[in-house]
């Protein structure tokens, strides 16, 4: 008995430590694509871009196995099709938890479960069984001693708030009063969070010019165009903040306070049809880069400045199989081969500048592909460069482009041979730079003060993690592994 109490206490402490790491920006991973990368390649892309939080729209076994031992926090999802069965059967809920959560913990860092997606607005007939489904899943977590580690909620659309502005008067659609009240009570009782899908793109494009586009894109507004809630006199610098605040006011209308709002989807499409003029690469780049800066300042919306807004960008890849308008297929920030749809820093961490004086040999932008391939072949062969890091599944394989692979091969050759007269030319396809090309777990020679050669094996903490935090994550994973084994014996 005492061992069970101790076990629960440790789980609770682990959860508290995970929550104490500040606001994050994660990504949604949809899979309605023609050229879907393998699960291993998707995870390699997450690591290369220092993405620490990922949301799956189901509980795909391949992805959950590939995410093992990465430390990436994972949100798995009960699909809308599964909600009906789980909401009517505790045994079905228990089986779902055992198969899709307990089977992967602690190796795969599953921290939350999204029950359905916008259930109230997409399948309203399921509203009566939504909270029962959440309760049955929670009881299954408790039975597995996982309730302190994994939290349950259900993502809802902004459409459940008919009039989100001004935020101070926002109310949930009264049609779902009973369900929302029960959901908020569940969230409060379990220490979970309210999941909100908030899209300024739709708020702006359907607003008939009421708000300026700069307001939707996080761009500064001139004094004469400041957006102010007339009831509270709070100033709103972005539609995103106003949407989140609308959710807070709607929640508090039910007398629930300090229930954190997590934005499970937001983003901006990079292309659209003739009737979608605001779906452009420029706007998508502006929105998502500004979003990352906004979330990373660790502050909340005007009415709750002390409650940071953890957020998931929609989405990692363009999903070409999605139906609907052209914009529906163009929300991704990366192409399947790992190259960016537009320049985007998916992490707020500062670039390591401790070796700004180092010199690196990299491939030129726009260099002839034949020259790049010849250069790679020579560097990795006769030049004796160590090219293992750009092989499939290794830290520098993604993005899977000639330029990326050539840069790594050129630099490895140059760093090894420069003292013996090696040059950085490769038929005119290379040049020297003091800008460190390292990214994520892909480290280029010269990026460490020791001057040693990078290993394609285990890597040091990424720039986004302090060494103590990275050590804590490793220790917690190790501890949880031991605890899970102990709990099986109780």
Automatic annotation (TrEMBL):
Ranges for domain X8 come to: 359-444
* Biological process terms in GO annotation: carbohydrate metabolic process; defense response
Q: What GO MF annotations does this protein's record show?
A: glucan endo-1,3-beta-D-glucosidase activity
Q: What reaction(s) does this enzyme catalyze?
A: Hydrolysis of (1->3)-beta-D-glucosidic linkages in (1->3)-beta-D-glucans
The protein depicted here goes by the name: glucan endo-1,3-beta-D-glucosidase
Q: Which organism is it from?
A: Kalanchoe fedtschenkoi
Q: What class of enzyme is it?
A: hydrolase
- PROSITE patterns, per this entry? GLYCOSYL_HYDROL_F17
Q: Which domain of life is it from?
A: Eukaryota
Localization (cell): Cell membrane
Q: Which family does it belong to?
A: Belongs to the glycosyl hydrolase 17 family.
Keywords for this protein: Cell membrane, Disulfide bond, Glycoprotein, Glycosidase, GPI-anchor, Hydrolase, Lipoprotein, Membrane, Plant defense, Signal
Q: Name one Pfam family in it.
A: X8
* Leader sequence residues: 1-22
Q: What is its EC number?
A: 3.2.1.39
A cellular component term, taken from the record's GO annotations: plasmodesma
Q: What is its main location?
A: membrane
Q: How does it sit in the membrane?
A: Lipid-anchor; GPI-anchor
């Amino acid at each position: 008995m005492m061992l069970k109490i101790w076990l629960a206490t440790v789980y609770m402490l682990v959860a508290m430590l995970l929550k104490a790491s500040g606001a994050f920006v994660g990504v949604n991973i949809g899979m309605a694509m023609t050229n879907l990368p393998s699960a291993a390649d998707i995870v390699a892309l997450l690591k290369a871009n220092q993405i620490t939080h990922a949301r799956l729209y189901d509980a795909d076994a391949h992805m959950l196995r590939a995410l093992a031992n990465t430390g990436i926090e994972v949100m798995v999802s009960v699909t809308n099709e599964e909600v009906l069965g789980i909401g009517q059967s505790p045994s079905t809920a228990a089986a779902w938890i055992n198969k899709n959560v307990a089977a992967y913990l602690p190796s795969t860092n599953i921290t939350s479960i999204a029950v359905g997606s916008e259930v109230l607005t997409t399948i309203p007939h399921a509203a009566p069984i939504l909270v029962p489904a959440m309760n049955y899943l929670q009881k299954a977590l408790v039975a597995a001693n996982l309730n302190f580690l994994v939290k349950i909620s259900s993502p809802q659309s902004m459409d459940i708030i008919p009039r989100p502005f001004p935020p101070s008067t926002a109310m949930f659609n009264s049609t779902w009063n009973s369900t929302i009240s029960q959901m908020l009570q569940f969230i409060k009782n379990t220490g979970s969070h309210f999941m909100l899908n908030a899209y300024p793109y739709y708020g702006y494009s359907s607003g008939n010019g009421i708000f300026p586009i700069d307001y939707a894109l996080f761009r500064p507004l001139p004094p004469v165009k400041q957006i102010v809630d007339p009831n509270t006199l709070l100033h709103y610098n972005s539609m995103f903040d106003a949407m989140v605040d609308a959710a807070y006011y709607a929640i508090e209308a039910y007398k629930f306070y300090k229930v954190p709002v997590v934005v499970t989807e937001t983003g901006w499409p990079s292309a659209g049809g003739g009737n979608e003029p605001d779906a452009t690469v420029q706007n998508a780049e502006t929105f998502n880069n500004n979003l990352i800066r906004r979330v990373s300042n660790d502050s909340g919306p005007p009415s709750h400045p002390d409650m940071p807004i953890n957020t998931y960008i929609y989405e990692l890849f363009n999903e070409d199989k999605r139906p609907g308008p052209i914009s529906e297929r163009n929300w991704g920030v990366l192409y399947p081969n790992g190259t960016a749809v537009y320049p985007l820093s998916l992490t707020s961490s500062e670039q390591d500048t401790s070796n700004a004086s180092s010199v690196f040999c990299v491939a030129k932008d726009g260099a002839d592909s034949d020259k790049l391939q010849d250069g790679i072949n020579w560097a990795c062969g006769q030049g004796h460069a160590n090219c293992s890091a750009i092989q499939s599944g290794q830290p520098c394989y993604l993005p899977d482009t000639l330029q990326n692979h050539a840069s790594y091969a050129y630099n490895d050759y140059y760093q090894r041979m420069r003292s013996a007269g090696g040059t950085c030319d490769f038929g005119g396809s290379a040049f020297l730079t003091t800008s460190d090309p390292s990214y994520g777990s892909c480290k280029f020679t010269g990026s460490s003060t020791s001057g040693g050669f990078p290993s394609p094996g285990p890597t040091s903490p990424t720039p986004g993690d302090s060494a103590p935090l990275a050590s804590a994550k490793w220790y917690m994973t190790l501890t949880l592994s031991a605890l899970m084994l102990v709990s099986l014996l109780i």
